[in-house]
Design brief:
The strands form 3 sheets. A two-stranded antiparallel sheet has the order 1-2. The chain has a two-stranded antiparallel sheet with strand order 3-6. It contains 6 helices and 6 strands. The chain is α+β, with helices and mostly antiparallel strands.
Length: about 190
């Protein structure tokens, strides 16, 4: 196990996203660090090939954030429902947020039938991994996976192919703990 500060391996034109999907190819996360807990667990200890994971940030006794797959709570759940989403157990996601996610996907894709089908894949918001396969997103997320481009293409049925940011600013390692060392931050 390793705990500490690392380069943030996420890459995304967040400003372009927040500006109505007007992407400029600027990586908001370039040069930023993240705190991480990295575990290496033998597959046999997982109890099978299919694993579902999510994390929750708790401040005091309040659930502040919950995430399984990236972008479910930040893109498909409206801001007025984020607190409820964070408080809800993922097993209740389809019942509580199914209609909301379907509406969000319909708005992005223009296709209600597609939105209904993909909502059943996206909820519950749990990162699913089949450890017998090494294929990357949607089967987990490898650090170099361009999950934003894949998600944009999926959710818009190919109308938007990407955000113009195609890789992290620092190459990730092929050995444990896999994350790149942190950037040196200038002191103010």
């Amino acid at each position: 196990m390793r705990c500490g500060l690392f380069d943030d391996p996420f890459f995304f034109d967040l400003v372009g996203f927040q500006n109505g999907l007007a992407f400029q190819g600027n990586d908001f996360f370039e040069g930023l660090n993240t705190s991480a807990i990295v575990l290496e667990v033998p597959r046999v200890d997982l109890g099978g090939d299919a694993v579902g994971l999510y994390c929750r940030t708790v401040i005091g006794r309040s659930k502040f954030d919950r995430m399984g797959r990236h972008a479910i709570n930040t893109v498909l759940i409206p801001s007025d429902k984020i607190d409820l989403f964070n408080e809800t157990d993922p097993s209740n996601d389809p019942a509580v947020f199914g209609e909301t996610v379907r509406e969000s996907v319909t708005a992005l894709s223009g296709d209600n039938v597609f939105a209904e089908a993909i909502t059943a894949v996206l909820l519950p918001d749990v990162l699913t991994i089949d450890t017998s396969q090494n294929v990357g997103f949607l089967n987990g997320r490898q650090l170099a996976d361009d999950v934003i481009d894949a998600s944009l293409s999926l959710l818009t049925i190919g109308a938007i192919e990407g955000d113009g940011v195609d890789a992290n600013d620092v190459e990730v390692s092929g050995v444990f703990p896999y994350l790149a060392p942190p950037h040196t931050m200038a002191q103010e």
